[in-house]
Fold:
Amino acid sequence: MGAWGTRAFENDSANDWAYDLADVQDLSVIGETIAACASSEYVDDRLGAQTVAACDVLARLLGKSRYCDAYTEKIDIWVRDHPQPVPPKLRSQAVEALDKIRSDDSELAEEWSEDESTYEEWAADLDELAAALQ
Structure:
């Protein structure tokens, strides 16, 4: 998975995804990522990490940034330069995607569950993110 932490941008997949976001001015990449998660029977770890990142960007657009560090710098710049409303439907789809990522149909959930304390930290972060979107 290439993760060094449990937060949205503490993994290689999310940081790679951020380059796709940098190429657009709208929410298209975010919507496409969340839709891909929703349509997957089983969410692999790469798509799961990218979906969490997409949800985190939505929270930032809503003014609910949960943390800032060197890994979120490019995201914070994008959000600052592209302020826009987040449609309620996209917000609800994002929350549903986070639920799916925590389910048995998710490779991320499987990987994080290998260590109970790390899983609890990861799950709490997803809960916090879902609350920020509601």
